[in-house]
Amino acid sequence: MRTMNSLRVGSTLVACALALTAAVAARADVSTERPGSILIFPKVIADGTRDTIIQISNISTMTVHAHCFYVDGSRDPNTLQPRWQETDFNIWLTRLQPTHWRVSAGRPVDFTDSDEGLDPGAVPPATAGFQGELLCVQVDSGAPSAGNSLIGDATLKNLQSGDVSKYNGLAIKAVNGSDDDLLLLNDTVATEGDDSAEYNGCPRALQFAGVRDLDEDPVLGAGSESRSFMTLIPCSADFENLVPASVSVSVNRIDEFETQLSFAGALNVTCWRELALGGSGSVFGSYFSGAPTQFYTATLTPNSQVGLLGVFDTVVTDSNSNSATAAINMSQLGADKASNLPATGPAGPPASIRISGE
Amino acid sequence: MLTRIRIGTAVTAAMVGVLALASGAKALTRSDRPAAVVVFPRIDVDTLNGRDTVVRLSNMNPDNAVIAKCFYVNGNSHCTNTGEPCTLSSLCLGTANTVGSCVPGWTVTDFLIVLTAQQPLGWLASEGLSGSGLPLRGPSKICSNSTPQFPRGCRDESDCRQGETCDENQTNAGTLIPPAPEDPFMGELKCVEIDRDTDSPPAGDAATNDLKGEATIETIQADGTIDVGTYNAVGLTSTFDNDGNSSLDIGNEYNACPQTLVVNHLFDGAINPITSPPTNLPDEESSTTELALVPCSEDLTGADRTVGVATAQFLVYNEFEQRFSTSRRIDCFFKSQLSLIDTTQPEHSIWNAAVSGTVGGQTRVRGIGSGLLGAARLTMTDTETSVSGSAAYNVHQDGDRTAGDTITIP
């Protein structure tokens, strides 16, 4: 009898412990600073005008393998739809090893070339005119691994002006990892207590702070102009069936007068999308350029569990047409007390990434 | 008996696991989420040389105004003979060809910022923001159908139209952001969410994580070209366990500072992987990286200047997985080109591409005595034309400090 009681007490404590584990672990989601098992670079360009340097580091003391996917999101000139062409390759990094490559050139395994260091694997050059994303999943013997060992940075350079911008790769932390090729990004506050969590959930919303589009830059003054761009990708992806994910997004802008204005139009992101916030041809019209104050913040809320990730760029131009670009990671709002968002997100299955076999 | 031992072992193991995970889950010192304390590791003003910083601070709370107590920490060194800001003693030339010493200093300038619900606020560090420059100025109470932008003030409902009530009005009143204390200025900006009544951080569940910040450093270069770099302020999130006093316990009341900062960088002097056109000619284009570090522990009352003094241990890994190391004392503020951290001769530095032997590197920075936070800046320069472009970025974080840090505010 005492043994039975002990068993019950023990079971209860273990259950409480597991529940607490899930609750505690549920606080984090996609990070721009902390390591993870899925590393995503939403904006990678090698189109002849700009090129990108990818830097990835293994922060663990074990050798790490990763299965990476370039996704070309440039628009087909005939259909005007994103190509969504996927190119995959493998890299491996020894303990604490950093590596880099130029996206337009890739990095072949060649110990005689000018790229000193241990080549991380045969990294192919991106296709001509590449505009898209890079996603790497940490694997072990071909299967997803929950090592949380990857961090990365992307540096974009304008080949004409020499202008440089840099942002951090977005890392999704594995909770328990996945035992198949479907990686569920299902650890959110809404699923607290569910011990089937595989990877941290996508953010409930993205937020960025900007300067009124087409307005003069605060430092450069008269004759200057500030323009902003955002690059967005769905959080979900299916590399096995090559089906691009699509997500509709609600946009809400708040200015220094505390005035809130929702974007009335429809914003859909399929595969990969770079958007100008103002100027001719912008889908936003005067939504951002017509803000009543110079500074504003905007929140992007995906209307489905597909989720959304992105990077924000500002290009300033002076009166002599010199320009410079700054990239910054968007802020991420989760469904916790800090985010002021409701705990329950949109209906539907969680975001997921289906990787193809090697 | 054996069963009970097994149960006890299982329970102990589960609880240990929970504690380990709970500890790990505190890893929320992040620049990509709102927080109760935000740290801008690098604010740069030098208007004579065309450099200034645009600071943006936003309140993410949908309903309530927040008050942030902010601190410019001046990291300038000064000449002992002239009192002017300096970077090297050789620049301290006084009258009659006397040469003084360039001595590190540390002064703190504090001020308040009141942000209404969800309001963003931006200002130039060289100019500050106050008075008529504030977006929302108005009476403390307004009639219910008027807006913060066009307020109709009231003392009670009798001052309002029929059916209206006389409500509290959220304004920026009380905000007085001074210009950076010196020009040139190089230092840190730190903002702490406080309670209006107690002048200290809100206690317990009243704590909120509402602040989000960004800094854009812009430079008009000598040749007329421009350069811009933006980074996110690093946030320390409240654990909702604050005791409400002016000593901020980082690691308990707030989530812990990172154990290690990780910087992905190109080694200084490395030929840029991207050249235009790609010729791989030596010295055609080279890169340098600057690192700014500030301590997690700080006594912002100025009473104890030893608080926050740390030794930064640097472990540098190249693409051969080879390791180099050095260390450096950090006082209140540290900024240096990587290849000048360990030597005055950059060509001999462990961060020099010719010494390290590879283009890319990973530098791991660990603070002893205090945690560290930081931001980095990459500059790529065409050595023929001297045209350069740069980018600011946030450094990565790994692990959490088990030794706590303390920020003391006045």
Can you put this structure into words, describing what you see?
The complex is a heterodimer of chains A (358) and B (410). With 358 residues, chain A is mainly beta. Chain A is built from 1 helix and 23 strands. In chain A, the strands form 5 sheets. In chain A, strands 1, 3, 4, 6, 7 and 10 form a 6-stranded antiparallel β-sheet that branches. In chain A, strands 12, 15, 16, 17, 19 and 22 form a 6-stranded antiparallel β-sheet that branches. In chain A, a hairpin with a 2-residue loop joins strand 6 and strand 7 (143-144). Chain B is mainly β. In chain B, 7% of the residues lie in helices and 42% in strands. The relative contact order of chain B is 0.17. The model of chain B is unreliable at 1-28 and 276-283 (pLDDT under 50).
Give me the secondary-structure topology.
The complex is a heterodimer of chains A (358) and B (410).
Chain A: H1 2-25, E1 38-46, E2 50-58, E3 64-72, E4 85-93, E5 98-102, E6 130-140, E7 143-144, E8 150-158, E9 164-168, E10 170-172, E11 182-185, E12 205-211, E13 225-234, E14 237-238, E15 246-255, E16 260-262, E17 267-270, E18 273-276, E19 295-302, E20 308-317, E21 323-329, E22 331-333, E23 351-354
Chain B: H1 2-25, E1 37-45, E2 51-59, E3 66-74, E4 77-79, E5 85-86, E6 102-104, E7 107-115, E8 120-124, E9 129-130, E10 141-143, E11 166-168, E12 176-177, E13 185-194, E14 211-220, E15 226-232, E16 234-236, E17 247-250, E18 258-266, E19 285-295, E20 298-299, E21 310-318, E22 323-330, E23 334-337, H2 353-356, E24 360-368, E25 372-382, E26 388-394, E27 396-400, E28 405-408
Parallel strand pairs in B: 20-28
Antiparallel strand pairs in B: 1-13, 1-16, 2-8, 2-14, 3-7, 3-13, 4-5, 4-6, 9-12, 10-11, 14-15, 17-28, 18-24, 18-27, 19-23, 19-25, 21-22, 21-24, 25-26
